[in-house]
Amino acid sequence: MILSRIHGLAIALLALLLTNCTVVSSPEQLPSGGSLINLVQESQRITATGYAVIDIQNSDVPAQRRLLAIRASKLDAYRTLAEQVYGQYLDATTTVADLVIVSDSFRARVEGVIYGARLESIKPVGQDSYEVTLSLGQDVVNDLRLLYLEYMAEGTA
Q: For a Cys staple, 81 with which of 18, 20, 48, 76, CB 3.0–4.6 Å?
């Protein structure tokens, strides 16, 4: 079972790597002023955006609420990066009595380590929210996934 799980993760990783390829058949297809190296580097980054509302932050000082909203939106962006790198653990439970659904619950969990993320932007969204965008190079994503696979293999051995 453990080998089939690792095998499945390896296949998923390979499929993800193959879907992120870009083919340029002629120099005319390159963006103006760009090079093939820059094009490949930009296409091999994943991005994540996080959001937070200013007014719900726990402070009486408006400037501090804005800073807390920026921090919360950055953490939300990191969570989204972790979802893209490691996936999401889902747990669902449905209870049926007398052929009627009594309760239906879902829980989602993300766990992982993210390093090397690049802060792309911090922008206010309207008057009440902030948006933070982070990106992560594909080489770091590959490293993180390999480390995770090694960790899982050691933990189950």
A: 48
